[in-house]
Amino acid sequence: MTTFEAILLTIVTASTPLLIAAMGELVAERSGVLNLGVEGMMAMGAACSFAAAVTFDSTLLGVFTGILAGALMASLFALVVLGFAANQVGSGLALTIFGLGLSGLIGAPFVGARRDPVAPIEVPGLSDLPYFGRLFFGQDLFVYASIALTIVVALYLVRTRSGLRLRSVGENHGSAHALGLPVRRIRFLAIIFGGACAGLAGAYLALVYTRFWSPGMIAGRGWIALALVVFAAWRPAWVLVGAYIFGAATVLQLHAQAAQFGVPSQLLSAVPYLATILALLLLSLRHGRAIGAPGSLGAPFVPDR
Amino acid sequence: MFSRTIFGVLAGAAALAVAAGGAVAQPKDKVKVGFIYVGPVGDHGWSYQHDQGRLAIEKAFGDKVETTYVESVPEADSERAIEQLARTGHDLIFTTSFGFMEPTLKVAKKYPNVKFEHATGFKRAPNLSTYAAKFHEGRYIIGQIAGKMTKTGTIGYVGAFPIPEVIAGINSYFLGAQSVNPNVKLKVVWANTWYDPAKEGDAAKALLDQGVDVLAQHTDSPAPIQAAEARGKVGFGQASDMERFAPKAQLTAIVDNWSDYYVARTKAVLDGTWKSEDTWGGLASNMVVMTPYKNMPDDVKKMAQETEAAIRSGQLNPFKCPVYGQDGKEIECKGNGALSDEQVLGMNFYVKGIEDKIPQ
Known about the structure:
With 305 residues, chain A is mostly helical.
């Protein structure tokens, strides 16, 4: 394996959890719900998936537990913001804090345990192609799932009736309600989907990326996923691009250090964040307004008021 | 007016009582010991080891002690947590990260009857001691092992932040490697975090991808050595024994052993003999412990054991003079045949042979 290939592979691993989590959040936000609890849901996904994987010695079971944990956390959030029309920003922050704490409790007995690497999928012949063979035909299942997820979400939002309904609820929940759309049911499902994705992203971190559990291991990736949704102007394809730009910037700055380019590492560490700000600036210059944000994003919805 | 005078008198009397209490230390029947950790106890590195020290106190004194800890305390917001412990009747408080220095000093001034101990700092007060460990002694040994074990001739180091403690560790590691392998090359990657397992792992992978085959780390999680194991390379555990994460890759680990010190200091408070001091322990005082040397040929193992014994007995100092800076100029030798403690604690230069720059 050449250095070039190795770098590409590391970038894919670094980008995948961001992509999965951001894609889930994108769907929730397109339905008009801002869930700032991504970090907490990811932490729960990581802790529960790892606990299950170790207990039952099954990565697959771990993954499903992680998804379930994320979805359960999200349902709690949904109950508060949909059922009681609570403030979404406050509730989301509370969800993050709650998730970080609870994950520490659940994960405590599993600190120090480890899992073996998840074997990548090999396609005989194709995986050994020079330069890009491993990149396209030698990843683990999560990576292919994250790409499939992007395509499915993109098609769903633009090409299906259900996706149209979800978007209209996000744009103007008052009108959607007047038209007879079940605003809260649609939002509930979107929030659950977002939580499930965050849980999956957390599972990926614990089971594939680091292969151990420790409190605080999400280390801000949930917040980056949130930023990516804004960066992508709420469009799935751009979330994919953004996630990979971010992953690439993170990994390449480490390689630049190892190669002794002589650029200060603090500056290099800031590059991904600077790139996000720059992209936001360019996007808003082009459109001249807050682009792509769903009209009802973050607004509480109370039927018939 | 009257009430203010009364209050003033009372305050004066209280201050006198405090001063008297501070001057004449008395034995105590029971002490309450508090700990402030910068990371989670479950980090399996730095904070985990401090908590092992706390457990050692409980084991040693049983009913005579009561311990509490606050974990994951952000350095910028630590004053509240420290003061909380001081206010709730703790007799002895350990604050276990460099960044807790100023807040600890501030709270120590406010609570003269409470004893404080700050790890890795340099500011002391009558009721504030400092303590640290000479991890660079262990790093010299792992440097020698790395110098012997490398096949590519390039060894790597994942650093957290370019602060003197980390830089001294890198220099000691490199000097050790150079002493057995004069042509060895060192690559350093800064993660700019103490604790982010995924990023630490990525930093390790970047080094391994660029030809490093022996990896050392000065960040807190087992991710770097685990990355080495996954690639079939070797490395060293940091702060705690990380063998279970990398049974084939861990050559040895530099373990922070705070237990003896914590037990001794608690005993001093119980006996009423506690004094403000500065402690800098190393291999000799068991504050730095090497785990068994594994996964290496017998001759390398023997060399490591001999070096460990030499450092322990004081025959060998990793920073024995002459030490040369990157520009090839000799560093002024302010200690006795070696760099002085101050020079090591404030180290802000790479030694000759490291072909990299310290990020400014």
